[in-house]
Design brief:
This protein is an alpha+beta fold. The chain has one domain. It is 27% helix and 23% strand. It contains 2 helices and 3 strands, in the order βαβαβ. The protein has a 3-stranded mixed β-sheet, with helices on one face. α1 links the parallel β1 and β2. The protein is flat.
Length: 62
């Protein structure tokens, strides 16, 4: 199963786009929300699950 790491869908249009695409195509996934730190860098926090340090990040299995 896929795991989709996203930021807040109200503030991160890129996260919303990935979420909508998976929902529209009826692809099963688990949603993980990582809050965005507005005004500061979230890079180190996102680096824990995303190789690029950015969201959205789609993980397939391991």
């Amino acid at each position: 199963m896929y795991t989709l790491w996203i930021g807040n869908k109200n503030y991160s249009s890129w996260s919303l786009r990935a979420w909508l695409s998976l929902r529209a195509l009826e692809i099963p996934f688990e949603e993980q929300l990582s809050t965005l730190n507005l005004g500061s860098s979230s890079y180190l926090k996102f680096k824990a699950f995303s190789p690029s340090g950015k969201v959205p990040c789609l993980i397939d299995g391991e």
